[in-house]
Every structure is written in structure tokens, then in C-alpha cells.
Amino acid sequence: MSQSALHTPDTLRSRSEALAGTLPALMADAQHLAATVLLGTHGRKRAGTGDEFWQYRPAEAGDAMRSIDWRRSARSDGHFLRQTEWQAAQSVMLGVDDAASMTFTGAKSRPSKLRRAQTLAMAVGILAVHGGERVGLTHLNEPPRGGRGQLMRMAQALMDGHEAGDYGVPRPKVMPMGSRAVFFSDFLGDPAPIEEVLGRAADRGVKGALVQVLDPDEEAFPYDGRTVFESMSGAIRFETLKAKSLREEYLGRLAERKDRLDRATRRTGWRFTIHHTDQPAEPTLLWLYRALEKVRA
């Protein structure tokens, strides 16, 4: 297709119609997913700078005298500190790989890797905004913001797409100092760029998590006999008469890739998890919710 054809009124109209039909569904799925975590938690409840009272705790060696609540301490034999809930707004940056490989699904009954990654990313954004934090997308030249309007802008930007080629390469444009970040991808391309990104993030005090989103067929390699393997863009094509003979080597390489990603996150203070599209999204979102709390500590 020529470059001029990509911008014809008919093409733009059809794309807008497709976006209009998919965007509400994405937001509805993300909001429903986020609600399951909100119902199962009781807020952040972290001690820190703020005004809302959380709890008293016994004074410990090293605590400043000015931090002691003398009124509460007078009612007992010990000294107590008044702690307030952590309320300082932070930034959570989200990166979603939307390269061709992410559009794969091995069955019509389950979502593509991309759709599941988009839903998880938006659910994380909803939770962050609910907690009074700012959110943003790493591929945009825009600072993170709070509020429902920002969530809608993010959802639309995710639906617009930005990555070309078979496999995505992380190129974060905005990574505020000391913020947290989550990258969603199948990470089946060259792992060197993500290792470089994690190194740069660590230098800026940015911590977070990698979520490797895989279709179960990519884990099981359920192929036998004559099989044609073709990348989602069609740029790579390989045919074999004995697909089953490739299974052991494929699974070994996949295991090596997972181990490399895990080691890279450990070196930089990040977290790593794997999500399969045939499994519910709730456990992964809850893992992310807790992981982001831990890397903030």
C-alpha cells in the first residue's frame, strides 16, 4: 500500500470507526479488571508524608524526638509516633509493545497478546489514578498526568499504535526521575535493547516490572509434521516437514530468553513475571499492584 493511500478519507474514516468501536470495550475491560483489585485491597496505607492519619507505632532507636506524639505517649508507659498515610503523588509510566508479533493468538477463544497487554496496562493506569498518582505512556513525548481525562488519552494512544516491524524495541521517551514503570511485551525480539533500557532506568532511579505476555501455543509448541512458520508481518517464513523435531530446541531457547530477562531485572532492581493469555488477568494485575508497591519502598 502506498503512503498516500494510507491517508485517504476512506482509510481515515474506517480507522476512526474501528477505534470508536474498540476503545469503549478496552476501557470497560480495564475498569472491570481494576475493580477486582480495588475490592480486594484497602488502599495503599503506607507511612509517609501526608495529612491523613493511619496508625500509631512504638518509637524505635533512631526516631527523632519531634516525631513522637506526646499526647498518645502520655496514655501509656512507652513512646509512640503518629504515622500518616503516604500521599505524595508519583508517576507510573507504561510501555506496551504493539509490534506485529503481539497481534498473535493461537485460538479465537482467547485474546491476542496485544489486547491483553493493553487491558493490563490500562488497569494499572486506573489503579494509579485512583491512588492519586500520575500516569503516562513511555512512547509519547508527554509528561505523566492524573485524572480520568488522562486515562482516555492513554487508551486512545494505545489503540492508535506506534511500533513497526515483527518485534518491538523499547524506546522510552519519558522516564521521570524516581518514577516507576511497567513494560508489556512478548520479548521475543532482540533482548539487548530492553537490557539497555533497564540500565538507563536504574541510573535515573526508575524501578518497575517487565510482563512477558505469551500465548499458550508459544509455550507448548504444539506443532507436528509439515508446518509453515511465518511471522505476523510475513517478513520471515520457514517451512519444515518435521516440526516436532524443533520443539526441544525451541523450548530451550525460550527458557534461555526468560532466564536472561529475569537476570536483567534482578541486576537493576526490577521485577519480572510471565502472563499467558489463556489465564485470567486478575492474578497478574494483583502481582503488579504489589510489585510496584515494593519497588517504591
UniProtKB/TrEMBL annotation:
Matching InterPro entries: DUF58
Designated name of the protein: DUF58 domain-containing protein
Pfam families from the UniProt entry: DUF58
Organism of this sequence: [Roseibacterium] beibuensis
Domain DUF58: 55-256
